[in-house]
Amino acid sequence: MVSVLVNALFPTLFLTLFLYSHQTKSEDFNSFSNETNFEVSNIAGTCNLFRGKWVYDASYPLYDPSTCPFIDPQFNCQKHGRKDKLYQKYRWMPFSCNMPRFNGLNFLKGNKGKKIMFVGDSLSLNQFNSLACMIHAAVPNSRSTFRQRDAISSVTFEEYGLELFLYRTAYLVDLDHDKEGRVLKLDSIKSGEAWRGMDVLIFNTWHWWTHTGSSQPWDYIQENKKLYKDMNRFVAFYKGLQTWARWVEMNVNPAQTKVFFLGISPVHYQGRDWNQPTKSCMSEKVPYFGLKYPGGTPMAWMVVNKVLRKMSKPVYFLDVTTLSQYRKDAHPEGYSGVMATDCSHWCLPGLPDTWNQLLYAALSH
């Protein structure tokens, strides 16, 4: 039943999934990439900010982690003993145009009185911390307030009335505790009530969809009131994102709220992705500098792209996947204080600062 439904909904993706397994080379999807041009142009005008290279910049990083009060300890790699700092010194340089340098004071003035919310998992926390630190560096003596209650954290820059929010949700769709157990509900977003009234929403999800065994936080997947013990994870991801897309279509007024979706943030546990099969991110000191990342385009990127292309409301795709794939050097590694090996999150200062520079460019456009 599931396979029939999926073949009806998106046969190209379903066929590609089983022919190419979980990853495919980027050159095999040129037609899909071409179809994303309208999303990229929404952000970048006539140039593509997401295609470029990493260059050394002695003026980086954009802030000092020891003076920023908003970094979650697991992202403060220097605090946990990482001695090299080269990973902080790389700037993203697009091939075809200049990316504006982040100006915290301009960001505060341009977004005075506004509410900006990140919605997603710990990668959203990574980006939320980063933006708070980037702004704080511009006005270190300005009054700011941090609050946390249940799933919502916030930083308010009082003088400017700018509020940054983080809503923690691993799947965007609901994960409920029912009589059957923990149920991931692919067609339900009750938590969306907390996302209303924002001027900017930046969504992210993917990493938890892959979890299995003891790290999987649900017992069943539910769709149309029917329970499944399991489901192909890309199929489930697609269905969940469709529910999120319907929520945006029904609840967001583009004249009042700008919506962004952060592209898939890669992991670097498998060195074969950059042609070094005996390695992981551990002790990596420099980015990958090749023209094409050997690991190819993640299948999850294909799913996100397909959902976004079908939406009628404008959603700005922060297509950070490729530029992030190059940054095998920028993970906490063994310096998170939480995980023995962390090749999925990012040190701060670091890569999420570039994600926020791209957000800054989009909001300024």
UniProtKB/TrEMBL annotation:
<dbReference type="InterPro" id="IPR026057">
    <property type="entry name" value="TBL_C"/>
</dbReference>
<dbReference type="Pfam" id="PF14416">
    <property type="entry name" value="PMR5N"/>
</dbReference>
<keyword id="KW-0732">Signal</keyword>
<keyword id="KW-1133">Transmembrane helix</keyword>
<protein>
    <submittedName>
        <fullName>Pmr5/Cas1p GDSL/SGNH-like acyl-esterase family protein</fullName>
    </submittedName>
</protein>
<comment type="similarity">
    <text>Belongs to the PC-esterase family. TBL subfamily.</text>
</comment>
<feature type="domain" description="Trichome birefringence-like N-terminal">
    <location>
        <begin position="46"/>
        <end position="98"/>
    </location>
</feature>
<dbReference type="Pfam" id="PF13839">
    <property type="entry name" value="PC-Esterase"/>
</dbReference>
<dbReference type="GO" id="GO:0016413">
    <property type="term" value="F:O-acetyltransferase activity"/>
</dbReference>
<feature type="domain" description="Trichome birefringence-like C-terminal">
    <location>
        <begin position="99"/>
        <end position="361"/>
    </location>
</feature>
<keyword id="KW-0472">Membrane</keyword>
<dbReference type="GO" id="GO:0005794">
    <property type="term" value="C:Golgi apparatus"/>
</dbReference>
<keyword id="KW-0812">Transmembrane</keyword>
<dbReference type="InterPro" id="IPR029962">
    <property type="entry name" value="TBL"/>
</dbReference>
<feature type="signal peptide">
    <location>
        <begin position="1"/>
        <end position="26"/>
    </location>
</feature>
<keyword id="KW-0735">Signal-anchor</keyword>
<dbReference type="GO" id="GO:0016020">
    <property type="term" value="C:membrane"/>
</dbReference>
<dbReference type="InterPro" id="IPR025846">
    <property type="entry name" value="TBL_N"/>
</dbReference>
